[in-house]
Amino acid sequence: MSQLVLLNKPYNTLCQFTGEDGDSTLADYVDIKKVYPAGRLDKDSEGLLLLTDDGQLQHQIANPKKKMSKTYWVQVEGAPSDEGLEPLRHGVEIQKYTTKPAKVRIIDEPSVWHREPPIRERKNVPDTWLELTLKEGKNRQVRRMTAAIGFPTLRLIRASIGPWTIGDLQPGEYKVIEVEPPRGAKTSSHNPTHNQRKRFSKPRK
Known about the structure:
By secondary structure, the protein is mostly beta strands. It has three helices and twelve strands, in the order βββαβαββββαββββ. It has helices at residues 55-62, 86-90, 141-148, and strands spanning 2-9, 36-37, 46-52, 70-77, 93-94, 97-98, 103-107, 127-134, 153-161, 164-165, 173-179, 195-201. β5 (93-94) and β6 form a beta hairpin.
């Protein structure tokens, strides 16, 4: 069995184990040796990050060609209508690249943790929560997509990657599960076996 770590990466934390003095890194929260991120999450984004000790599993999760869907909760500035979100469903141009169609809908504010520092707020300007699902991951793609239709992202939380969800993990908490390791191409249609082994939260140094 391969080891898979599900971490709720806090805001303002680098998606790596080392950094400059004063940086918040994964080492502040995960004390498991020889696990590495499967994909990335920007420093100013929060939510689900997967780490594993299995190189093949890491590749399967992170490789865009595997088309593993990722779902985000996105707080945007403004009040888009459902019709106003239609360009995201067809693809928008960001930096001379046209995104692939995404699934997007307006949702009620999710029950999530308070962020420090909080988002900027502007009087008389509403904000809206969206649920957006992609099968690709260009640099800062979600933020650029919402900006392209006139609704800047204020807060970005990744809620799920493939079959794995953030669940009730709080910022800095993680849990370890065991999944069957990839076996060639057949794994793309195989549902991993989830055996939760431990749950742990390491306090920030």
